[in-house]
Amino acid sequence: MAKRRPFLALLAGALTSSLVLTGCLGNPPSRPGTTSSGSSATLNAQAASKLETTTISLGFVPILEAAPLVVGVEKGFFARHGLDVKLSKQSSWSTARDNVVLGSGGGGIDGGQWQLPMPQMISEGAITNGKKVPMTILAMLMSQGNGIAAANTVKNANLSVNLKESSPNFFAAFSGKEGRKFRASYTFPKANQDIWIRYWLAAGGVNPNKDVELLTVPAPETLQGMKNGTMEAFSTGDPWPSRIAKDNVGYLAATTAQIWKVHPEEYLAVRSDWVEKNPKAAVALLKGLIEAQMWLDKPENKDEAAQILSSRKWYNVPVSVLQQSLKGQYKIGANGTPETDPKMGPLYWSSDRGVISYPYKSLTLWFLIESLRWKFYPGTVDTIQQAEAINNRVVRDDLWLQAAKELGLPAKDIPTSPSRGKETFFDGTVYDPANPQAYLDSLKIKG
Q1: Is the peptide bond before 433 cis (omega within 30 degrees of 0)?
Q2: N or C: less crowded end of the chain, CB within 10 Å?
Q3: Confidence band (pLDDT; 50, 70, 90) for 113?
Q4: Predicted TM-score (pTM) of this structure
């Protein structure tokens, strides 16, 4: 039995049982109506009269990626376009998956916030016990705003984004000293957080399949497990990186913005049958989302956004923590070096690489290429051609473009290509979506 150590309490203090982000598959779905929160704003009757439906049920998990959905409801952006968005707090990612399989007609949800490639794999039945539920990716919710936290017990290792420079040979030395592998965890397997920690380790010359032990751990077990020495690191999203440093229970080893600036994060995706039946409502949903993202990105709105999100109804997290997270105020590394750079924090609308909200197919494809790299979904994603075909079926950028046109967005904010072009990671690796095979070939460590 591992002896007790003062490990970081990554998600400490703010989560109630209803907010748990478990990583276990097969959880029974909870009924979203018990925690749903619809818009208090009055629907625009004229806009509503033009839609096929005026309601949609969306699931969310209380991290910053969901902020545009919450703000869209609270500030009336969805209602302005005639849509009553009923947001339902999901107890876990697996519960969200189960609820979207049910659909709102069966007591579940129509869609919501997702880690990728969950929508693609739900469409293919790869994570739904073979039941295929076609999904449509409509928009990206946020970029950046995630991090890899390390326990205070490995503070001397000074883990950073570049492990080759900061912590050479640390993981091998750790195994020799402790008689076991370094353990790191995430909340849901084979998706964003799993992929980020794998990329980070592999870029540092550490094989995530051989040199460390990766764990999928429900949040309550994570808290206790870290205190008991069950794990040394955890991959998670804001506002938790800020909370870790603020409470001095661990340190932020790396942010995902350091790994890949303006990287794709979580997405809005809805059941395809809902979109096909309600295309005008889907565009209305996107118009409200875009306006919420534009509002969130303005510096003068960060404090109000923190106030909105902090309520028990939504995140139940201290306002001060959310303010720091939204403004990109971090303490980086074992020494807790303060850094404030909004461009390295969560981005909702604009960036140096263009508009965040638009669902670039080149970015959604990357998650499938990484799935191929690690052999996450054998029989479903075994070739680049399969990955591209799945991606093209699921992503609908045409609806986003229609919403942008109806909003009258300036030309500079409307992408003219479904590809953002070449992407460069911190370690110099280049992902060219026009040649994903070259990217795969360049990666020294694979599954």
Answers
A1: no
A2: N
A3: very high
A4: 0.91
Residue 14 has pLDDT above 80, yes or no: no
Please give the angle made by the CA atoms of 327, 234 and 210, to the nearest 5 degrees: 140
Alpha-carbon span 291 to 299, nearest angstrom: 15
pLDDT by residue (tens digit) across 124-173? 999 999 999 999 999 999 999 998 989 889 999 999 999 999 999 999 99
C-alpha span between 422 and 430 (Å, rounded): 7
Residue 218: the pLDDT is 59
Half-sphere exposure of residue 27, counting CA atoms within 13 Å on the CB side? Answer: 19
Q: Which two tokens stand for residue 220?
A: 């309550």
3-state secondary structure the chain: CCCCCCCCCCCCCCCCHHHCCECCCCCCCCCHHHCEECCCCCCCHHHHCCCCCCEEEEEECCCHHHHHHHHHHHCCHHHHCCCEEEEEECCEHHHHHHHHHHCHHHCCCCEEEECCCHHHHHHHCCCCCCCCCCEEEEEECCECCEEEEEEHHHHHHCCCCCHHHHCCCHHHHHHHHHCCCEEEEECCCCCHHHHHHHHHHHHCCCCCCCCEEEEECCHHHHHHHHHHCCCCEEEEECCHHHHHHHCCCEEEEEEHHHHCCCCECCEEEEEHHHHHHCHHHHHHHHHHHHHHHHHHHCHHHHHHHHHHHHCCCCCCCCHHHHHHHHCCEEEECCCCEEEECHHHCCECCCCCCCCCCCCCHHHHHHHHHHHHHCCCCCCCCCCHHHHHHHHHHHECHHHHHHHHHHHCCCHHHCCCCCCCCCEECCCCCEECCCCHHHHHHHCCCCC
What does the pLDDT look like over 257-309, one tens digit per residue? 999 999 999 999 999 999 999 999 999 999 999 999 999 999 999 999 999 99
- Nearest-angstrom CA–CA distance, 238 and 65: 8
Which residue type is seen at 268?
Answer: L
Which of 122, 194, 188, 127 lies closest to 393 in space, CA to CA?
A: 122
- C-alpha separations of 213 from 7, 162, 181, 207 in Å: 17, 20, 6, 10
| Residues in contact with 327: Cβ distance below 8 Å, sequence separation at least 6, in sequence order | 299, 302, 340, 342, 345
